[in-house]
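INTERNAL AUDIT FORM
Audit reference: QA-55
Scope: verify that the stored structure record matches its stored sequence.
Auditor: D.O.
Record contents follow.
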Amino acid sequence: MRFRFIRLWLIFILPLTATAQIDPVRRDLIQLGYNQPLEGQSPLAGYAYYYHNQPDFLRTNQTLRLAVAPVYLDSNLGFVHGLGPQTDFSLGVAGGGFAYGHSEISSGRYYKNQSFIGHGGEFSGNIYHLFNPDDLIPLSLVLQGGARYTVYDRYDTTANNFQLPGDGATFSLRTGLRWGGVEPTLFPALAMEISGWYEGLFRVNSGDYGFAGDRRLETDAHQFWAVAALSYTLPESQQNFFARLTAGTAVHADRLSAFRLGGILPMAAEYPLTLPGYYYQEFSARQFALFNASYLLPIAPAQRWNLNFSVGTAYIDYLPGTGQPGNSVTGVGGGILYRAPSDRFHCLLNYGYGINARRDSGHGASSIGLLLQIDLGKTLSHDDDFQTTQPGRWRGWEWLMGR
């Protein structure tokens, strides 16, 4: 255990990367997040990564994007105007451990004997077309295709008679229209977005797995979702209001392609499906509608100390075999945020209460969380965000910390 803690901190400072839409702004960010339930037992939920974006890499029209997370490396090289005056493209290579596994949660209970690890590597090609270069709010078409190979393995707690999914290749296609965008920071001062997306997964090796084949990995799975978001900061008081509505549906959804909702880890995904007070990814959904809102209130001179209030409410059509009684779930939260005088350090300690959470002790559950952002350079507003909807890139924590 002691050796794994040492290895954990060594990996945190090693280089690693993540992909997103080509970003013309130089960025050097360190992001950390952690959720801890106060009732029940859940998978370890947290992230820690270094995000680096470097325009003019080697040539003036090339941008290198890197992000560093435990035992996972994701890199992307973008070519600005590579396919025309308003069309960029990029190539991405990613790989590492623990990124494609599954944690089985149903009715508020974490089933260790049905959870497993997934390692893999992937390659992607991405095209971004800007329709309105002269407008203040950009309208972009995103087209992404990729291929990955996944190898599944057991935890020490995985049941011996639980058959793992077959190893194999998965091809993916993702496309969407995005008007506006939200930059990859904890509290964007000003942002708006309306977007619609499709993502399809096509597996070479599908089939039954689990206990005597009681669940299935589908040959193809399809997700459709839409997002409307707005963030605004009052100029004088610096009060910040943020709201986001996300809704999605899936065709041929299985446990590895369903939407996952729960927890508060806002920098874990491009569109985090957060619900205060619940386990991270507690709910698996075929269809859902989720509303999130937060309010940031400065309470000290120069806005160094702030109160944060948040709410999340969702209607969920659960994936069969994973749900709980009642389709509506709501969570509320609050916390205190500290901003360093340089405004390059943000630390938020928060509390969440899941009103409809199911636990052995009854209804309702609490959790605490810590979010930390260190901006090593100047951060400007831009329509950039992280790529995949359900990344789970930090699952290496479970192995690193001996869980």
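Auditor finding: record pair retrieved intact. Residues 1-20, 379-392, 394-403 have pLDDT under 50 and may be disordered.
Action required: none
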